[in-house]
Amino acid sequence: MGKQPVELKAVVYALSPFQQKIMTGLWKDLPEKIHHKVSENWISTILLLAPVIGTYSYAQHYQEQEKLEHRF
């Protein structure tokens, strides 16, 4: 049982440099899409950002209090 070479055909996709309507679907109704995503996932966003912001603000407050403690 020997190995036999197998020819593979590759498919290459390319866009014309003169084609201007490549990403029109991305920008179409952009504010509506953003509003839909935010209104659909607002609870997940809050649950993700609240601990991050809370930890960061706690660390900043602690660092500031530590700096002020050595003043007096």
UniProtKB/TrEMBL annotation:
<keyword id="KW-0249">Electron transport</keyword>
<keyword id="KW-0812">Transmembrane</keyword>
<dbReference type="GO" id="GO:0005743">
    <property type="term" value="C:mitochondrial inner membrane"/>
</dbReference>
<keyword id="KW-0472">Membrane</keyword>
<dbReference type="Pfam" id="PF10890">
    <property type="entry name" value="Cyt_b-c1_8"/>
</dbReference>
<dbReference type="InterPro" id="IPR036642">
    <property type="entry name" value="Cyt_bc1_su8_sf"/>
</dbReference>
<dbReference type="GO" id="GO:0045275">
    <property type="term" value="C:respiratory chain complex III"/>
</dbReference>
<keyword id="KW-0496">Mitochondrion</keyword>
<comment type="similarity">
    <text>Belongs to the UQCRQ/QCR8 family.</text>
</comment>
<protein>
    <recommendedName>
        <fullName>Cytochrome b-c1 complex subunit 8</fullName>
    </recommendedName>
</protein>
<dbReference type="InterPro" id="IPR020101">
    <property type="entry name" value="Cyt_b-c1_8-plants"/>
</dbReference>
<keyword id="KW-0679">Respiratory chain</keyword>
<keyword id="KW-1133">Transmembrane helix</keyword>
<keyword id="KW-0999">Mitochondrion inner membrane</keyword>
<keyword id="KW-0813">Transport</keyword>
<dbReference type="GO" id="GO:0006122">
    <property type="term" value="P:mitochondrial electron transport, ubiquinol to cytochrome c"/>
</dbReference>
